[in-house]
Amino acid sequence: MAERQLRWGILGCAGIAQRAVIPGIKESSTGVVAAIASRDEAKAKETAEKHGIPKAYSSYEALLADDDIDAVYIPLPNHLHCEWTVKAAEAGKHVLCEKPAALNADEAAAMADACAKAGVVFAEAFMYRYHPRYAKIKELIASGEIGELRGIHGTFTFNGAANKSNVRFVKEWGGGSIYDVGVYPISAARLVTGQEPEAVTCRAFFSPEHGDVDMMASGLIEFPNDVSLTFDCGMWAEFRNTLEILGTQGRIEVPSAYIGPQNIVLYRKGERTELDMPTLNTYTLQADAIAAAANGTAPLPFEPQDAILNMRVVDACLKSARERIRVQL
Question: What is the pTM of this model?
Fold first, then answer.
């Protein structure tokens, strides 16, 4: 007997929702997009019509009050994540919250606690890690294919500096490159090592033209066993999103680590091997995983605690960059 499809509501008409998450859910066999809400009623109706969504609400509260909605996706500005995750949990809805989960680890913990109390699923929207290539990367490391792990380098940069009205440039709303794209290499390093960092040192360029948010940041994140992640992230630089995992006998390159082509390259004793990976919609994989957890057929691949731990590292990066100090965790 087929499982009942998860009925999704979307809180807001953000670009990421329209460009990726809504199409990803619609492509899945486990979920349907049943409603969307915006504080601008006309915008809600226009977006609903554009994407074939049956219901449009003029408030987030109205959507949460709809008993026909099982789960919500929250792509709101970062400072609203905690408030609306808690409200969604209290309304009995499963929650997929856009990254970063919150403004800090304390908020993330409050969100996780609210969802646990309500008995609903809570997941942070790092879609990239649902692709099987990351399981393959972990398998290669664990098998000793590249020898002993020596270091990781990650990047995620793009140039969006011209749009001065971007919400990413509002400091009080959780703006800045560490929140927006630095979270990716941080989460990836934690994922592939299976460990939590011990200390962080981060330097950043804070731009007065962009609300004094970090428009570029570089960091050193120290893991156990003398392994470190070096990373850089930025919103005023040429586009790239890469991950390199270095071992004593080889290395793994992920040329498009988070978005884009899904190949990985293994270098072993001077030989280059391109590993065949399926081309999959990671937003669909994410929706399927949440539906399985909501229906009780499979555990959530990444527990709420993961979001708290990732925010703990982000907190340390921001503190280090602002105060120009090394932060121990």
Answer: 0.96
